[in-house]
Amino acid sequence: MIFTLFLLALAIGKEVARIESLVLVTKATEFTAGTPIKLEFTAKSNSEKPQLFIIHSYGKTLLEASVDRGNYVFELPENYCEKTGKVSWFLILEHESIASGTLQILPNPKTKTVLENYFGPRKIMAGGREFSMMVVVPTDGFDNPKESNTTVKLKYQFLQNISTLDLRTNNFIAWYNIYSPDKAGKILVSTECENTVSKEIETEVYPNIATDFSINYSRNHEFADGNQLTRFSTSIIRDQFGNVVSDGTLVYFIIRTKENMLLKTFGATINGIASAQILHPDHQDSYQVKAYVMGIAESNSITINYKPVAASFDYALSHNNRTLRVGPIKSFMNQLVPDGITVVLNVLQKNKIVATLEKETSKGIAFFEISDDILAAGNFQLEIKTLGISKKTPILRNDHQQ
Predict the structure, then answer these.
(1) For residue range 325-349, what is the model confidence (pLDDT) as tens digits?
(2) Fewest beta carbons less than 10 Å away: which of 156, 188, 261, 351?
(3) Sequence-ordered strand ranges (E) for 225-338
């Protein structure tokens, strides 16, 4: 038992002697980024082969010592010296750690300050509910963030107003939310820190969503000729703050006919005004028109009446009632109707439609040929429809029936 205690005391004495043989001489625990960092240890002899194990944000490494005036000197790699943060070290002798400590690398205030700016979103809507955030990261010449409470000057301009704010960095950054004004336009932003200024950054303030508006129409005449155009236009569409809505805002014109059919046309705004057009009907009708910026705004409702272009038309049969000529059809000034007016012919037998033919006018006239395969045995009747007018012929003989 006494011998065992003696051996233990001897081992402890050797360990203490080994630890005391290497003593840290370097007193500094804080260093400036970019300057050489050395840790020096005294040595009673140069027979030991110590190593220094470093834990750095760049990684871990094991350093070999150089001997200077009898002391062991460990020099950190240059890239380690340029990066701020905490560095932990462990002195290794014969594969065991005999001493440890930490040191701190601080930003270098003597290098030129660099500003990293982040600003966005770069498009916001007027009205004060949306904002763009300005984030500033001031760094030293080695890309290390400046210390907390570093002053950053923020300037932003809108229309005739220029605002200046002093921000303080916290956790490496300084930030500020710039809310949108009520008017549309551009916000220009710049930052400054320690005599370094940034370039100009901008965000676009767009008009807010559209509010209700009015519509009107224009046309060459009021007749339903199926040829001319009726043009719709809006008033200047604005948002609730008086801004003209953005160019390209789609406006849909919804048209309800007398027969409750729905028609649609649309146009995009230019300088706040949207225009669209629609073809005149080819028969007497009345349109109810209302416009929408879908899901956002709507217009008043307007009524547009179209008069018939002709009160009646002539027709003639030939070739044993198998050829029908409709027209010439005259319009509201006794002129021929435009080419392309649709004429519909229904062939009836026993008051039932057995065939429907359709032609378009040329020089006011449409021709129909009634072939044998359309008709069964017996007489027939023709019903002619065009421009909202309908006429029926008398009962006709089917002279070609077998």
Answers:
(1) 888 888 777 788 888 888 988 988 8
(2) 351
(3) 229-234, 250-256, 262-268, 275-279, 285-293, 297-308, 315-318, 323-326
